[in-house]
Write a structure and sequence with these properties.
By secondary structure, the chain is mostly beta strands. Helices cover about 5% and strands about 55% of the residues. It comes from Stenotrophomonas lacuserhaii. This is CS1-pili formation C-terminal domain-containing protein.
Length: about 900
């Protein structure tokens, strides 16, 4: 909840009306409220259309607003010198409030919040929006700031400092017969104005049908940006940077070289000013039943999914860049039922129509090949745009074991309501290997995707060491179509691979059947592995009273031929679920009931029922979630699962445990994940959540001077992510991916139980009152963002003298606030939590202890306060020496005229 000072003041006045407005008529200003008529200074956000000058002091009275420092405001609005000199006189004078033109409750509607710009180039108009705590300015059209022309290349934020940043992600999963643990980390250290060290590592350990693992350093290199279009890297590198803006948009998927130690030089798209949309090959898994799916890159666990039966497209946003194969292990009721392998490609979108190139040389350092000597290798790539919709990419590798070349053609065409993407690549090797890949996707009303892969290499005729593309034929196709308020899905996959009994020392020996052998090849002892799956389903979601009703039905067919014999699975299914979502003040609860009916071929029907409950709690800067799931079916199979998630400034963690029981077997499975990041820079150590933390913001919120004041002080949103609530005195790292433009927005966010209204002060690093700041950081850079705060304490009560009479029309000496009402009532805003109220009634000086009896939001109710006479000498020096107080005391002849004022000026 955002509470600004004007809003808090308005609320305080509303609460105080029964106290202070007794006997007051509308025909005159109530006694003691002369200061409201004369005006009071408020901290307001001054805006000129989309630009903001930040929160500045503004004198506000019943009719006008007047900026206290117009020169600073004009400078902050980034107007040219001619505009500043022309507008300064008008902006220095009081401006009509025009509050009737403000939008009510902050809702932008036609006809509100806007005035026609003045025709005179020296005139200024304003709208005072009390609800938002803002003053909107309107000037002649010739002075309106023109849209900033976007530079072709980004410029790194000059205020960023060199720092060390590191992130980690821990994934674990397992059961009775298998366990997997993967820890991945990445760090960046700024070394110079244009260079940094980068490293990424992983540790994996897995036990089950295949055990292994170990530690591996994926990348460890120094990168130097020669300029904003070219770079030089030296050290250990893999191919992922070649498929990202750091090194271009080279999507090689079949060239054998994955990682090497050496030198790379080439063109970069890191600084290009475009929204670099990351394009990734869709990964689709077809499930006949609810299942857990573990995704691996080789032996590294990438992510664990809990998916319902049907056609599921996996979320691959956290996958690393590059072209590689992803292995999917599918568990039903905790038992591994099958594995699938699919090619995956994630790279930057070729939005820059310029020539791209790279050249690298060194020695091979392939994963899992520590026992093999590294070969000397040279690799080069060239990407040539052909118009705006097509690009041709060529790459070549020269190694001791052979030479390989890959040619790729990419097409991307957008129309008004449709989009077409296509890719075709072919690879050839000097030892006879070859391969092709093709992919096409078309989106209009329906979405169509087709992917085909065919590869042959030397492994098909020999068990010798290989570098080629494998012996695989794979086809996948899918279609999604909105239909009658629901969605129709169709999917098909086919895969064939050929392997033989392992030759001693070569566990991956593969032999080609005669029908697919290359010229001059001979068939071997073949273990042909074939699988074909197709599935169709229709789903629809509707609202019924307080429930969301989801219905889904469809057909499936799965066939696989392997060493263990053919396996067939087919049938139809129907699923019905009811979900009820209940939102509370801080807790959101979701309850789900589902019924699943399946009719496999030549088997009895399977009926299952499930019930789940999820509760999520959001509090200040953290969110917590717990869930429970219970399932059972007519085959005496049962499962119970519990899970929890916690997200705060220490990171994000989740864990799930599931127990499965069926006749003659029991299984327990689990999975857990945790991610976090930290930074060490000139301003100290910072910890935070985030993924992709090779750069970041170091946020530091000022602590409160009042030791009793705590809670949330501000809300920060960066790059469209969820809002992060910052507490008083907090230090936090906001991790950011480097070489990307981010926008940081800071807003007020006082907590409801705070004794004071907390606002973001003037000079906040990201702009206050919703204003933003754009940030572009290179790796190993940390941008410090201090968050100053301003606190307003609102007191409501009534002053009474020793005789029990109201202290009416008394001037407040603590601060320039309105005088007391006729019945002694007061509504006062102080910038600090005052303990004593000092009053001047006529020539009588009084002091009144302020004891809070009740707190409503950020308003302190003190009730009736008993005031006692006070000698001038007992008045605190910091109050007595103020020029305003000295003038009042001199007018009442309580001090010698001018003496206090002079002392105040000397101080």
């Amino acid at each position: 909840m955002m509470t600004t000072a004007p809003v808090a003041t308005g609320l305080a006045i509303a609460l105080a009306l029964p106290v202070v407005m007794g006997g007051v008529t509308a025909s005159r200003v109530p006694d003691g409220f002369e200061d409201l008529v004369e005006g009071q200074v408020e901290q307001l956000d001054v805006r000129l259309f989309e630009r903001s000058a930040g929160v500045v002091p503004v004198l506000v009275d019943l009719n006008t607003v007047q900026l206290q420092d117009p020169g600073t405001v004009l400078q902050a609005l980034d107007l040219d010198p001619a505009a500043r000199s022309s507008l300064l006189p008008a902006l220095s004078a009081p401006l009509p409030r025009n509050s009737h033109l403000a939008c009510r409750h902050g809702n932008a509607q036609a006809g509100c919040g806007y005035m026609d710009p003045p025709e005179e180039d020296t005139a200024v108009a304003a709208i005072y929006d009390e609800g938002e705590g803002a003053v909107r300015l309107f000037v002649a059209r010739q002075w309106l700031p023109a849209p900033r022309s976007a530079e072709r290349l980004h410029q790194a934020s000059a205020a960023a400092e060199k720092a060390f940043l590191h992130q980690h992600v821990i994934n674990a999963s397992g059961g009775r017969d298998q366990r997997a643990l993967a820890i991945q980390g990445a760090g960046a250290l700024g070394m110079s104005a244009h260079g940094h060290l980068a490293a990424s590592w992983n540790f994996s350990q897995h036990h089950g049908h295949r055990s292994g693992g170990g530690f591996d350093m994926d990348n460890a290199y120094y990168r130097h940006d020669l300029d904003r279009r070219h770079y030089l890297q030296a050290g250990r590198m893999d191919r992922r940077n070649l498929a990202s803006p750091l090194g271009g948009t080279f999507g090689f998927g079949m060239l054998p070289l994955d990682r090497f130690d050496g030198l790379r030089v080439g063109s970069s798209q890191a600084y290009i000013n475009v929204e670099a949309a990351m394009q990734a090959t869709p990964l689709t898994v077809l499930l006949a039943r609810d299942a857990r799916v573990d995704a691996f890159d080789g032996e590294r666990l990438l992510q664990t999914y809990y998916l319902p039966a049907g056609i599921n497209e996996l979320d691959t946003r956290s996958y690393p860049f590059g072209s590689y194969s992803v292995t999917l292990r599918i568990y039903e009721a905790g038992v591994l039922v099958r594995g699938e392998e699919a090619p995956f490609d994630k790279r930057g979108d070729g939005a820059d129509d310029t020539l791209q190139w790279f050249l690298q040389a060194g020695r091979r350092a392939e994963r899992g090949a520590r026992h093999l000597p590294g070969e000397a290798t040279v690799m080069a790539g060239l990407r040539l745009p052909v118009g705006h919709a097509m690009a041709v990419t060529a790459g070549a590798v020269d190694m001791e074991s052979g030479r390989y070349a890959e040619l790729r053609l990419d097409l991307r065409q957008r129309f008004a309501t449709q989009e077409l993407r296509a890719g075709l690549s072919a690879m050839r090797g000097s030892e006879g290997s070859r391969g092709t890949r093709s992919q096409i996707s078309y989106r209009r009303r329906a979405s169509w995707n087709v992917h085909h892969q065919r590869s042959r290499d030397i492994r098909c005729q020999s068990s010798a060491r290989y570098d080629g593309a494998g012996c695989v034929d794979a086809l996948s196709a899918s279609m999604a179509l909105p239909l009658r308020g629901g969605s129709l899905y169709l999917g098909y996959t086919r895969r064939q691979a050929w392997r033989a009994d392992p030759t001693p020392g070569y566990a991956e020996a593969v032999f080609m059947p005669p029908s697919l052998a290359l010229p001059g090849q001979h068939a071997g002892n073949v273990d042909a592995q074939r699988s074909r799956n197709w599935q169709g389903s229709f789903s629809r979601i509707e609202r019924w009273k307080e429930y969301s009703v989801a219905r889904r039905f469809g057909l499936w067919h799965q066939r696989s031929d392997a060493t263990g014999g053919p396996r067939h699975d087919r049938g139809f299914f129907f699923n019905l679920s009811l979900t009820r979502l209940q939102r509370g003040d801080r807790v959101t609860s979701q309850r789900r009931h589902a019924m699943d009916l399946r009719q496999p071929g030549h088997q009895r029907p399977q009926m299952s029922y499930s019930a789940s409950q999820t509760m999520r709690r959001q509090y200040d800067d953290q969110s917590a979630e717990v869930s429970a799931d219970l399932r059972g079916d007519n085959s005496e199979r049962y499962s119970v699962g519990v899970g929890a998630q916690l997200q705060n400034h220490f990171g994000h963690g989740s864990a799930t445990v599931a127990f499965h029981r069926q006749p003659g077997r029991r299984e327990t499975g689990y999975s857990a994940t945790h991610s976090a990041a930290f930074a060490l820079g000139p301003s100290g150590f910072y910890w935070g959540e985030g993924n992709g933390a090779d750069a970041g913001l170091a946020v530091k919120v000022d602590p409160a001077q009042d030791s009793e004041l705590s809670g949330v002080a501000a809300e920060l949103q960066v790059a469209g992510r969820r809002r992060q609530r910052l507490r008083l005195g907090e230090r936090r790292l906001v991790a950011l991916p480097a070489y990307q433009m981010h926008r940081a927005e800071l807003q007020d966010a006082s907590s409801g139980d705070s004794s004071g209204a907390v606002r973001v002060g003037v000079g906040a690093g990201a702009g206050a009152g919703g204003a933003g700041r754009e940030v572009f950081l290179a790796p190993g850079r940390l941008l410090s963002m201090a968050v100053p705060i301003e606190v307003t304490y609102t007191f409501i009560g009534r002053a009474q003298d020793p005789a029990g009479l109201p202290v009416s029309a008394a001037r407040i000496l603590n601060a320039p606030v309105p005088a007391t009402e006729g019945n002694g009532g007061f509504v006062l805003d102080f910038t600090r939590r005052e303990q004593v109220l000092y009053l001047l009634q006529g020539s009588r000086l009084l002091h009144c202890p302020l004891q809070v009896r009740e707190q409503r939001l950020a308003v302190l109710m003190v009730g009736t306060v008993q005031c006692q006479p006070l000698d001038v000498a007992q008045l605190p020096a910091d109050i007595r020496q103020q020029e305003r107080v000295a003038q009042l005391l001199g007018e009442r002849a309580l001090i010698r005229p001018g003496r206090g004022a002079q002392r105040g000026k000397e101080r």
